[in-house]
Amino acid sequence: MTTIQLQNLRKEFDDVVAVDGIDLTIEDGEFLVIVGPSGCGKSTTLRLLAGLEQATAGRIGMDDRDVTSTEPKNRNVAMVFQNYALYPHMTGRRNITFGMKSAGAFTDDEIDQRVEEAAKTLDIADLLDRKPEAMSGGERQRIALGRAIVRDPDAFLMDEPLSNLDAKLRIQMRAELTRLHAELETTTVYVTHDQTEAMTLGERVVVMNDGRLMQVDSPQVLYDFPENRFVAEFIGDPAMNMIDVTVEDGTAIHDGFEIPLPGAGTDAGTPGTDPIPERSGDRHDAVLGVRPEDFYLAQESPDLGDATFTATVDVTEPLGDSLLVHCSVGDAVFKIQAEPRTELQSGDEITVASDPERLHLFDPETGEARYHSATARRSPERIERAPRE
Ligand SMILES: Nc1ncnc2c1ncn2[C@@H]1O[C@H](COP(=O)(O)OP(=O)(O)OP(=O)(O)O)[C@@H](O)[C@H]1O
């Protein structure tokens, strides 16, 4: 069982700052997912943890040990890679045991016993005598996981381990990884660029961009209370709509609509963000964030209340379980997730309302969140969080 601390961790490659001063504690037994776009520094962070890269500055601690400069083989962590990294000429069993045998720290009986246990846990008994060329991608990744498990490491470090698998297998393996983690309770750091994967796997999710941490929270908190535009737009699919508005008297105003912001200005903004002012006559620019699933069509929800507005349908996009309606009002374009069989044509006028409990405002200059509506005030998890400095 292991706690991992990253303190002001930095990695430069020539003139590229891949990791730009990260502070993060990974709790004992936690499943932590690092997610972000390509090039944001997530693999480098993982490789620093594994000792495959040397930090330019900062410290990595594992429990009480400073491992910043410790050789990879002395860190007792097990890496699982996207390309499985199996030896092609060895059987599944040899691939699993090779590291243990060469470490010389285990007897043959111990090795056999651990392979049996891992084979049972991962359901790979019938793969042990096959070579990787005779295995599917999913089977190879199970062998790679077996190799990680038998070492009984202090932590698993996984770098996009499912991205070479087809969509169906990926979903199945996600469930297996969750089960495996519940069984082994080993501290796990998992890197992916796929926000859906991050949200389904992570107990906590780190969103990274440009070598920095944008937010570290549970999937639900990231979704409901993004601390900035980057997180708001990265988490959730289809992405959150962002519309330039003017805020006045607790209302978000745009050419063609006025959306009341419940609680705005009554000191009810999210803890940790500035409440937006409501003094009469105080106008300021903001970016209104509304998820496509938090806009509604009047024809589907007759009880929308008064705060509706009219928009024009641009195009519709069937997504299977919903219909994505691209529409516009004035110069604002946005998306609405409607029922799958809604009949709409380009050019149709629609009546739209938004869920008053799921509105967000962001600072147009900095992108920082300024306000989340009512749901924010109901979230005990969020309210207990210390305000940001
Ligand atoms: N060995 C290296 N030499 C030079 N630059 C590097 C090296 N490794 C990574 N980088 C650069 O550091 C930055 C972060 O790379 P990293 O691989 O950590 O990103 P990532 O978030 O894992 O991206 P991806 O999802 O594409 O793998 C990128 O700009 C990358 O080009």
Describe the model.
The chain has 389 residues and is of the alpha+beta class. The protein has 2 domains: 226 residues, Rossmann fold (3-Layer(aba) Sandwich), CATH 3.40.50.300; 146 residues, OB fold (Dihydrolipoamide Acetyltransferase, E2P) (Beta Barrel), CATH 2.40.50. Helices cover 25% and strands 32% of the residues. It contains 10 helices and 21 strands. The strands form 4 sheets. The protein has a 6-stranded mixed beta sheet, sandwiched between helices. Strands 13-12-11-14-20-21 form a 6-stranded antiparallel beta sheet. It has a 5-stranded antiparallel beta sheet with strand order 15-19-16-17-18, with no helix packed on it. The longest helix has 18 residues. It is elongated, with a radius of gyration of 25 Å. The two termini are 31 Å apart. The C terminus is likely disordered. The structure holds adenosine-5'-triphosphate. The site of adenosine-5'-triphosphate has 12 residues, from strand 2 and helix 1.
Write the layout of secondary structure elements.
Elements: E1 4-13, E2 16-26, E3 31-35, H1 42-50, E4 57-62, E5 65-66, E6 77-80, H2 92-103, H3 108-122, H4 137-150, E7 155-159, H5 167-184, E8 187-192, H6 195-201, E9 204-209, E10 212-217, H7 219-224, H8 229-234, E11 241-248, E12 251-254, E13 257-260, E14 284-290, E15 295-297, E16 309-318, E17 323-329, E18 332-338, E19 349-354, E20 360-362, E21 369-372, H9 375-378, H10 380-384
Parallel strand pairs: 3-8, 3-9, 6-7, 7-8
Antiparallel strand pairs: 1-2, 1-4, 4-5, 9-10, 11-12, 11-14, 12-13, 14-20, 15-19, 16-17, 16-19, 17-18, 20-21
Helix pairs in contact: 2-4, 3-4
Adenosine-5'-triphosphate (ATP) binds at residues 13, 16, 18, 36, 38-44, 193.
